[in-house]
Amino acid sequence: MKYQSQKIAFAYFLVAMILFVVQVSGGLLAGWIYVAPNTLSEILPFNIVRMLHTNSLIVWLLLGFFGAAYFIIPEEAEREIHSPQLAYLQLAILVLGTAGVVVTYVFDLFHGNILLGKDGREFLEQPLWVKIGIVVAALMFLYNVSMTVLAGRKTAITNVLLIGLWGIALLFLFAFYNPSNLSLDKMYWWYVVHLWVEGVWELVMASILAFLMLKLTGVDREMVEKWLYVIVGTSLFTGILGTGHHYYWIGTPGYWQWIGSIFSTLEIIPFFLMMVFSFVMVWKGRRDHPNKAALLWSLGTTTLAFFGAGVWGFLHTLHSVNYYTHGTQITAAHGHLAFFGAYVSLESRHLHLCVPDPEEPRSLQSGAQHGQLLADVGRHGVHDLRADVRRHGADAPAARHGAELHGRAGSARGVLLHALRRRRGGCSRCHSVRLCDPGASARGHRGGRQVEAGTG
Ligand code: HEM
Ligand code: HEM
Ligand SMILES: [Fe+2]
C-alpha cells in the first residue's frame, strides 16, 4: 500500500464481508423454506428473507466497488484521496441505511408510509428515506473520487472506473420513478437492474480487471488500455439495446423481440473478451508475482463470468427460448452464477490483492521482489551491452566484455536509483509497474517498452 488513504478500502471491505455472511445465511434460509415451506412463516416469511438475500448482495457488492475505487484511485492518480473523512462518513450513511432497511422489513415498521415504510420492488425495496440516503452517499463518493482524479494523473483505468461509477449513480435515479402502470414500472425498473449489471457494472469490472492485470502480470499499460477500450465499447454497444431481452412479455412493442434477441446475444462478446484478455495478459506478462491467489482469482472470475453471464445468459436470451424459460429456475440459476462469476469473485480477487496472505512468509515476498530486481538488472545489462557492441563493433571480444561490465554496473546503479525513487512515491517519469529502463532519460523515456526493445 503506497498511500495512507488506501486504508479506507479495508473499512469498506470489512462491512462488505459482514453483509456477505448475512446474504449467504439468507440464501440458505430461503432454500430451506423451499424444502420446508412453513419454516418461520410467521416471523420471517419467504418474501422478506428473499429481499434480505438479494439486497444484502447488492449493497455489499456496491461497498466492494467503493472500496476498490478507494484503493485503486490513489495509486492510479498518484495522490491521496481528496477527503478520507468524507469517505468514512459515506460508509456510516450506507451502514445506517442498510440497518434501516433490515429493521423496517423485519418488523414491518411504518406500514404504508411513503417516506418511511417498505417499498416492495425487487432489488429496489429500500424505503424512500434510504434511497435518498443512498443518493447523498453516492454524491459524496463521486465528489471525493472525482476531485482526487481531477487533481492527479488521469489514466484510462481511472476514466473508465469513473464513468462506470457515475453511471451507477445516475441510473439509480430511475429507482425514484415508480409509475402505477405495471408495464412502464417494469420498463424503468430494468433501466436500473439490467443497465447496472450488463452495462455500467461491466465498466467497473473491466477497469478493476485492467488494474489487476497491470499489477499482477507486469504487462505494458498501453496493451492493457487497448483491451480495456475494446471491452468497454462492446459492453455498451451490446448491453444498452440488450435490455430488450427483458421486454418480451411486459407489453412493449413486438420489435423488442428481435432487438432484444440480437443485441443480448452479442453481449457474450465483452465477457468472452475479458476472459481472453486475462489469459493473454498472464501468458504475456513476465512477472512472477508472488500473490498467486489474486492471479488465480483473476482467471477464475473471467471464466466464471463468461459461463454464468455469457453462456448461461445466451441459453435463455432468444425470445423463442425465453417464452418457455421466463421466470423459472433457469433464470434463478443464471442469476446466481452470473452474479457470482462476474462480481462476487471480482471482489474476492481484489481483496486478495489488497490484503496480503498472512500465511505467506515475508521472506518469500521479498525474495520474489529481489529476484525480480536481479532479473531486471540482467535485462538492462544485456540491453546496454547490445548498444555498446553496436557502437564498438560486434566482433571485438574485448569491447564486448568491457561493454558488458560497463553496462551491468551502470544499469545496476540505475535500477537501484529507480527502486529508491519508487519507494519514495513512484518514478516520476514512467508509470510502468515493472521497473523502467534506468538509462532511458538520455534516450527519451518510454517506460517499460524500452526494456522490451532491448531484450527482443
Ligand atoms: C448457500 C448459498 C445460497 C443459497 C442457498 C441461495 C438461495 C437462493 C434462493 C432460494 C433464492 C430465491 C429464489 C426464488 O425466488 O425462487 C435466491 C435468489 C437469489 N440469489 Fe441466492 N442463494 C445463495 C447464495 C447466493 C450468492 C452467493 C449470490 C450471488 C452471487 C446469490 C444471488 C441471488 C440472486 C441474484 C437471487 C435472485 C434471483 C432471481 O431473481 O431470479 N445467491 N437465492
Ligand atoms: C454479469 C452479468 C449478469 C448478471 C449479474 C445477470 C443477472 C441476472 C438476474 C439476477 C436475472 C433475474 C432478474 C429477475 O427477473 O429478477 C437475470 C435475467 C436474465 N438474464 Fe442475466 N445477468 C447477466 C448477464 C446476462 C447476459 C450477458 C445475458 C444474455 C446473453 C443475460 C440474459 C438474461 C435473460 C434473458 C434474463 C431474463 C430471464 C427471464 O426471462 O426470466 N444475462 N440476469
Ligand atoms: Fe439483462
Describe this structure in words.
This protein has helices spanning 8-35, 46-77, 84-106, 128-151, 156-172, 182-217, 221-242, 255-266, 268-284, 292-315, 319-325, 329-354, 362-392, 397-423, 440-443, 449-455. The protein is built from 16 helices and no strands. 74% of the residues lie in helices and 0% in strands. It has 456 residues and is mainly α. Helix 7 packs antiparallel against helix 8, helix 13 crosses helix 14 (397-423) and helix 13 (362-392) crosses helix 16. The longest helix has 36 residues, at 182-217. The chain is globular, with a radius of gyration of 25 Å. The protein has three domains: 1-154, Four Helix Bundle (Hemerythrin (Met), subunit A), CATH 1.20.120; 170-359, Cytochrome c oxidase-like, subunit I domain (Cytochrome C Oxidase, Chain A, Up-down Bundle), CATH 1.20.210.10; 381-451, no CATH class. It binds protoporphyrin IX containing FE (2 copies) and fe (ii) ion (FE2). Fe (ii) ion binds next to helix 6. One protoporphyrin IX containing FE binds next to helix 1, helix 2 and helix 12.
Please give the structural blueprint.
Layout: H1 8-35, H2 46-77, H3 84-106, H4 128-151, H5 156-172, H6 182-217, H7 221-242, H8 255-266, H9 268-284, H10 292-315, H11 319-325, H12 329-354, H13 362-392, H14 397-423, H15 440-443, H16 449-455
The chain binds protoporphyrin IX containing FE (2 copies) and fe (ii) ion.
